[in-house]
From TrEMBL:
Cofactor(s) it depends on: FMN
Name this protein carries in UniProt: Ion-translocating oxidoreductase complex subunit G
UniProt modified residues of type FMN phosphoryl threonine: 176
Keyword Cytoplasm attributed: no
Xref: SMART domains: FMN_bind
Domain FMN-binding: 101-193
Keywords from the UniProt entry: Cell inner membrane, Cell membrane, Electron transport, Flavoprotein, FMN, Membrane, Phosphoprotein, Signal, Translocase, Transmembrane, Transmembrane helix, Transport
Protein's job: Part of a membrane-bound complex that couples electron transfer with translocation of ions across the membrane.
Gene designation per UniProt: rsxG
Assembly mode: The complex is composed of six subunits: RnfA, RnfB, RnfC, RnfD, RnfE and RnfG.
Membrane-protein topology: Single-pass membrane protein
InterPro entries documented for this protein: FMN-bd, Ion_transpt_RnfG/RsxG
Source organism per UniProt: Marichromatium bheemlicum
Compartment(s): Cell inner membrane
Length: 220
């Protein structure tokens, strides 16, 4: 038996295997960095869209805290982005979870300005029915824009509901559960921010926001 040709073939195969693994690792590392940067830029755009233009000069993605208030915010922990201009607070942006969407949890971004009003609301992810509940997406309708400028006093607290329930907010034809759940979640977010007040700005930042901005279906 010729040992040398066998050893040579084994060496060549091993070299190919090692090279292949190395190439995969390098590619994954490069792609992971690119994906992370794309996700960061996407979140920056979403935050900017629900803030007053030119009214901040910090980086909310690095000025974050984690809070625990499942009853009002829908999850065990909720990320809060702090927005400032100089040393002055401008807004907090929370990521509440709507636990009772029609087809599962819905992740939101809710901006609350220092005067207690909503700067804007955006949907990060959802599983709602196409053509019905998915009208919460900007690309499907402008319904979510109606929250901007509202507060716990405007409309009055008792009118924070869809019109079918005697409130001031529109529902969708054939789909009431989804808007009802989001109206409730935004109201609860406002209540939480009102309860916490300045404490949300005073806590030291805990971590940089690097996780995915969406999990399943992203609203543009």
């Amino acid at each position: 038996m010729k040992i040398k040709p066998i050893l040579l073939a084994a060496f060549v195969l091993s070299a190919f295997a090692v090279s292949g693994v190395a190439l995969v690792v390098i590619t994954q590392t490069v792609m992971a960095d690119r994906i992370a940067e794309n996700q960061r830029q996407a979140m920056e755009r979403k935050l900017a869209a629900i803030l007053p233009a030119g009214e901040s000069d910090n980086d909310p993605l690095t000025d974050t805290i984690e809070v625990s208030a499942r009853e009002l915010l829908g999850a065990d922990t909720t990320r809060v982005y702090r927005v400032r201009k100089g040393e002055a607070p401008v807004a907090v942006i929370l990521e509440p979870v709507v636990p009772d969407g029609y087809a599962g949890p819905i992740r939101l971004l809710v901006s609350v300005l220092t005067d207690g009003s909503v700067g804007g609301v955006r949907v990060l992810s959802h599983h709602e029915t196409p053509g019905l509940g998915d009208k919460i997406e900007e690309a499907k309708s402008d319904w979510v824009y109606d929250f901007a400028g509202t507060s716990l006093g405007d409309p009055p607290l008792e009118r924070w509901a869809v019109k079918r329930d005697g409130g001031d907010f529109d529902q969708f034809t054939g789909a009431t559960i989804t808007p009802r759940a989001i109206v409730k979640a935004v109201k609860n977010t406002l209540i939480y921010v009102e309860q916490q007040g300045e404490r949300l700005y005073e806590q030291p930042a805990t971590q940089t926001a690097t996780r995915r901005t969406t999990t399943d279906q992203e609203a543009s």
